Give the backbone structure.
Amino acid sequence: MNNSEERRQLAAALRWTARLNMHEGIANHFSLSVSDDGSQFLINPYGRHWSKMKASDLLELDAHMTPEGVNDVVDPTAWAIHGALHRLVPHARCIMHVHSKYVTALACLKSPLMPPIDQNTMRFFNRVAVDTGFDGMGLGREAERLAGTLGEHRVLIMGNHGVLVVAETVAGAFDDLYYFERAAETYITALQSGLELNVVSDKVAEKTARQWENYPNAAQKHLSAICAVLEEEEPEYRE
């Protein structure tokens, strides 16, 4: 896949996240490596609303830049967090970070891990890292710590903060981000009932998680369907 197509996919994911109201104004950030070593990456500019994002709006940054090299079109926390991850986590080719409603509520709980109570929560069974060391807005050492805490996982619950998802592709990261928010919504809603949760066995939860992992082309089909809608309704996202 060429750089132009990757730009279009990232712009589409940003626009769709806005449609789902999973963004937070002009805050939060998505990035994508465009070099073999991951050090060169695309990221959404600070101040551009996600609902209006175009492929050409995306900035290309170097993860080895110094803070002084970042101007006011780059969100400082975006550069710090995504720069650290692109430098330090090889499998984090695409990184998506949001403060979406239900995931953020989950991140504010003393125990933020979701029990396996439906197919979506089971998808992430034993597959989520949790950071409990919140110490500010993701600048400096905070960003370096997040990279270490993520490890080999694809999803990081950022305690008192939000969520961060990584994958090899835009499609993979967006699919995980979408379903993790849906899983959190189910869990938080079930807690609000005040009734006892029907938690399945670890065996069933692990079986279901593996079935998710082996589902054929689900992430790419999901993103392709989104792009098809945007092609009709907001084709300028490709520009």
The chain has one domain: 3-238. The domain at 3-238 is CATH 3.40.225.10 (L-fuculose-1-phosphate Aldolase). Residues 46 and 73 are 5 Å apart (CA to CA).
